[in-house]
């Protein structure tokens, strides 16, 4: 596979405001389209998108807004609940947000008359990450600059509280063993907690600061990835508490790390905005260089499609989507070197 040159997004969707965060629904929701949510300065938009890579009769991307939720304050994070279903009657849309006012909001909607939200309060500083438990969706974990990881039930009651040694940057739940939680701290330490015993059971060290983002590989839960300083780092937790591999990737400091949902060797990173643009890269562990490099004027957020090697990033009044060429090696609708078409639609 040859290295891709820097290129523009394959698809874009125009939005009414700056997009601070974007998240594909990582769970099966019972609909052919894939749910996506994005947040701006005072709203969250939930929609569906289907791509030509998955539906032969679609040209580019087909996007439809399902509901706009008034938020009242800047949206900093979004997490989907596994209880979200589009094939139920009525449908269920459930997600939570973190916001600039240091609160978590739990939204529930049937896309008709029922549109409710509950406020979860307790953090005293910026919330850097939040996630639902992936099995039942009955608990939410969050991490914050206030040096805590907190576990909440859906009534907004804190049921566990872990004191950290530095700001909590990322939090991930094990996809099967939901009593295991991973928490990444800014000081470079990643700890795994047993929620039944309410204590740490394993730790990893990056030996670099600041650690800004970490992610548990859901296709291979022995793998953990992170970005710290200018580098990405990969651990095999069965081998060592220190990184198995690392590489410098972003001159302006790395910002976000996300594993692909379909390939244990595929991941994406973003850098902080430089003088002109934010850099976005897709990496494959079998290749020494990034397999795709993108540039965004002001990029925010990073999310992988549930079933495609496709990433979304938020930008200035738009969503941007990149498709890696790996797709064409596993699906033979197009030859390996076929270029992605640039398609823009208006939300």
UniProtKB/TrEMBL annotation:
Q: Which domain of life is it from?
A: Eukaryota
GO cellular component annotations of the record: kinetochore; nuclear pore outer ring
Instruction: Offer one example of a GO biological process linked to this entry.
Output: mRNA transport
Query: What subcellular locations does the record give?
Result: Chromosome, Centromere, Kinetochore; Nucleus, Nuclear pore complex
On whether rRNA processing is a keyword of this UniProt record, the answer is no
Keywords assigned by UniProt, alphabetized = Cell cycle, Cell division, Centromere, Chromosome, Chromosome partition, Kinetochore, Mitosis, mRNA transport, Nuclear pore complex, Nucleus, Protein transport, Repeat, Translocation, Transport, WD repeat
Start and end residues of the WD repeats are 120-155
UniProt xrefs under SMART domains = WD40
PROSITE patterns per UniProt? WD_REPEATS_1 (PS00678), WD_REPEATS_2 (PS50082), WD_REPEATS_REGION (PS50294)
Is Transmembrane there in the keyword field?
Answer: no
One Pfam family, please name it: WD40
The record ties this protein, via PANTHER family, to: NUCLEOPORIN NUP37, NUCLEOPORIN NUP37 P37 -RELATED
Subunit relationships: Component of the Nup107-160 subcomplex of the nuclear pore complex (NPC). The Nup107-160 subcomplex includes NUP160, NUP133, NUP107, NUP98, NUP85, NUP43, NUP37, SEH1 and SEC13.
What is its biological role? Component of the Nup107-160 subcomplex of the nuclear pore complex (NPC). The Nup107-160 subcomplex is required for the assembly of a functional NPC. The Nup107-160 subcomplex is also required for normal kinetochore microtubule attachment, mitotic progression and chromosome segregation.
Task: Write down what this protein is called.
Answer: Nucleoporin Nup37
State which gene encodes it.
NUP37
């Amino acid at each position: 596979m040859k290295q891709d040159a820097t290129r523009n997004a394959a698809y874009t969707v125009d939005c009414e405001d700056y997009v601070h965060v974007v998240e594909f629904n990582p769970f099966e929701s019972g609909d052919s389209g894939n749910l996506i949510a994005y947040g701006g300065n005072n709203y969250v938009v939930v929609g569906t998108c289907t791509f030509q890579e998955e539906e032969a009769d679609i040209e580019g991307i087909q996007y439809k807004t399902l509901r706009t939720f008034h938020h009242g304050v800047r949206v900093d994070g979004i997490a989907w609940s596994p209880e979200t279903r589009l094939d139920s009657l009525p449908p269920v849309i459930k997600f939570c947000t973190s916001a600039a006012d240091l609160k978590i909001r739990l939204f529930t909607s049937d896309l008709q008359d029922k549109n409710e939200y509950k406020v979860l309060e307790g953090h005293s500083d910026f919330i850097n990450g939040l996630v639902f438990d992936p099995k039942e969706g009955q608990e939410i974990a969050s991490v914050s600059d206030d040096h805590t990881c907190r576990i909440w039930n859906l009534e907004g009651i804190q049921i566990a509280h872990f004191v950290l040694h530095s700001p909590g940057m990322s939090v991930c739940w094990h996809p099967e063993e939901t009593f295991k939680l991973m928490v990444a701290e800014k000081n470079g330490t990643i700890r795994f907690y047993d929620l039944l015993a309410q204590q740490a059971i394993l730790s990893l060290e990056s030996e670099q600061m600041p650690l800004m983002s970490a992610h548990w590989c859901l296709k291979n839960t022995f793998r953990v990835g992170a970005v710290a300083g200018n580098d990405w780092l990969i651990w095999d937790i069965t081998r060592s508490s220190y990184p198995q591999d690392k590489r410098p990737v972003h001159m302006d400091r790395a910002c976000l790390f996300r594993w692909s949902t379909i390939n244990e060797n595929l991941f994406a990173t973003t850098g902080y905005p430089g003088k002109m643009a934010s850099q976005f890269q897709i990496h494959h562990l079998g290749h020494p260089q990034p397999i795709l490099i993108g540039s965004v004027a002001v990029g925010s957020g990073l999310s992988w499609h549930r079933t495609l090697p496709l990433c979304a990033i938020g930008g200035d009044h738009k969503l941007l989507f990149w498709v890696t060429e790996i797709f064409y090696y596993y699906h033979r609708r197009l030859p390996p070197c076929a270029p992605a078409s640039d398609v823009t639609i208006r939300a």
